């Protein structure tokens, strides 16, 4: 891997780690907001048969809370993760139909995730959803563009 790809990949790892920690920290406010437990602590509710207490809140629910109310770091986390997956796929998949299919599948996964959170009434979840829609659409458009460009060249 050349320096032109290694340095941005290393920065993506650093951004991902910092954003993950910051999202987890911001989401830890869920412990103090007991009125949000019913709507935000969904993973804890699933794991404990609907019973949510201060001591048994799942760490993953912190990320749900962060997405719903403070989406900046979760968006950075998502973008850096998608970049890392994209770069790893470029390393192992040769440019062509396999890479284009992989990018399309990744875009569809993001659009599906956006569809799952589209009903949320919070502005933070809407920001996160729109970032998923944007990145998913860009990935699909890039895959289509590269495929048509390849077809016309051949």
Question: What are the salient characteristics of this protein?
Answer:
about 150 residues; mainly alpha; 7 helices; about 0% strand
Short synopsis of the structure:
By secondary structure, the chain is mainly alpha-helical. Helix content is 77%, strand content 0%.
Please tell me about this protein's structure.
With 154 residues, this protein is an all-alpha fold. The protein has two domains: 1-70, no CATH class; 93-154. Helices cover 77% and strands 0% of the residues. The chain has seven helices and no strands. Helix 1 crosses helix 4 (59-69), helix 4 crosses helix 7 and helix 6 packs antiparallel against helix 7.
């Amino acid at each position: 891997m050349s320096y032109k790809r290694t340095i941005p990949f290393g920065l993506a790892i650093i951004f991902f780690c910092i954003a993950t920690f910051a999202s987890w920290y911001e989401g830890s406010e869920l412990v103090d907001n007991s009125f949000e437990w019913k709507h935000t602590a969904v993973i804890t509710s699933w794991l404990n048969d609907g019973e949510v207490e201060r001591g048994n809140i799942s760490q993953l629910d912190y990320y749900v809370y962060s997405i719903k109310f403070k989406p900046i770091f979760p968006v950075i986390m998502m973008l850096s993760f998608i970049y890392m997956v994209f770069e790893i796929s470029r390393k192992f998949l040769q440019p062509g139909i396999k890479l284009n299919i992989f990018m399309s599948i990744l875009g569809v996964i993001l659009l599906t995730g956006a569809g799952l959170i589209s009903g949320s009434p919070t502005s933070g979840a809407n920001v996160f959803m729109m970032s998923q829609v944007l990145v998913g659409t860009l990935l699909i458009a890039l895959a289509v563009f590269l495929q048509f460009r390849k077809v016309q060249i051949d």
